[in-house]
Amino acid sequence: MAAMWPIKFQKDAKPGKTLKRKCDEPAVKNYEEKRNRLFQPAWQAGRPWLLFDAVKGMTCSWCTEHGRGGIEGASKKNLFVVGSKNYKHSTVTDHEKSKLHLEATNVKNSKKEAKEKKSTAHKTVMALKEHTRKQMEYRFRNVHALIKNNRPISDYVWLNQLDRAKGLEISSTYDNSSSATLFLEFISSVEKEKLTNILAQIKFFSMTMDGSTDDSTTEQETVFLRSSVQGKMIMRFLFIGEPNSTGSADLFTFLKEKLAANNVLDYMSKFIGFGCDGAANMMGRKSGLLTRLQEEYPHVVGVHCLAHRLELSFRDIFRNNKYYVKLSTLLIGLFYFYKNSPKQRKGLREAMKVMSVKGTLPHRVGGSRWMPHIKKALETLFRTYPAFISHLQNESHQDAKAEGLAKIMDDFNIIAFAILLQDLINPLTKLSLLLQAKDTTLADTTDVIESTIDYLLQCKTSQSLKLVAVTTSKTVSGYGLKIRGKELNICATTENIVDELISQLRARLCGQPWVKSTLIGSFKNWPVEDTNAEFGKKEVELLTEKFHTALTTAEYDTSQMVSEWSL
Fold first, then answer.
1. Which candidate, 20, 98, 176, 310, has a CA 20 to 30 Å from the CA of 90?
2. What pTM, to 2 d.p., does this model score?
3. Of 113, 119, 62, 58, the residue nearest 91 (C-alpha)
4. Residue 141: beta bridge partners?
């Protein structure tokens, strides 16, 4: 019989208690105290928010930036805001699963989605704003166009109506002159702010002032600012206004008031030059406007407009020349003969058509720019000469004016003088345009004037082919010319006119020595090769002495300028 299992089953028996194992607790505690835990860079994989700093420890950028209550509020419950040095992987994972971190993550994702994808309401509001902005842009552009093209402000209403007729969505809310004036004031305020910023940046500036009469015969004075910004010449409109009178005292008061109103008066320490015409009220030695300005700003230099000087030189030479007076009579007579008579204009056009002449109607002579006007009138005279002379001769049988003009047109002396004048006026007109160019400096004008003088000297010894052909054949465009009285001596006349022109140019346009010294301010006047070590040294000395007050006021050390130039 098999042996019985020694363990018997007992009813209501309970398992005994498990005995605790004895462990070396002091050894485990010492291990944790001595263990040096370090941050593991591998923990940052897949966790762009986890940052490590040797001083702060581990921080969470998302909780710091997007945590509830900001840094101060979140730091009370979130150690990853101020920094945690419990370098355990479990610490990182616990924070990653924490409620505070999940909230910060949601806030960050919401902001990102808001930037990438706007809501329907937001898009609607932005569309409305863009539509309103576009309407205002049309209105500002219309006002700007009216003023720039010298149109009345009342044209603003129908200009908006024209835009609506073209299909532009513009409301009629601001269709009145008062609103146009308001828009104009806004434009003006923005431009004034731009001007103030320019004045704050530039080192020095000059002003140009000139007067004119508007349609209502009211004297208007216009002032422009001229300066250099990063080596480039700039010209800015300052203001226009009506002084009490054109006297120097009233002009001075007007200028000071306008400068103060346009925020320029605070920068007058940078004011070094003043350009104007040569009238007594402007450049009078005793009480002219320039003299009054120099009493308050002694370092200011006055410059008489060079283009205006050239025009005055031209006028002084020819105003007593009998051939020029007769030629001017012809040009003015042609202009008004055809301007005041539609019948004569029609007859001239028919003559040009029949004779296949590609000409134009006569141009006006005179005005503020005499040389360009005369140049254009002479070009028209010779281009349309066959039609002019044919039509005038046909009309001379019944019109005394036509007979007189035709008689002048077939005069050899007048036509020869006109060709001579055309040859001489071409370089003078080019000189005038160069003198008016925005980027032309005073030093540049010296070289241009000398080049013009050299060209005029060549005209003394050589004649143009056109002048030689007319003097030889005594015809122009196939029409014979008549010599009335003594024949014009072309060589002697040319020599006399050229000598007077050169004398006037040197007397009026060649300025003081310090003007030539400004050549160092333009690179095109520098020597091509660096062989002259003394180049510019004397010029710097002269300019430093001339503008010593202005340079000192601007806190420049004038004693070091010559040495710095030589380095």
1. 20
2. 0.66
3. 58
4. none
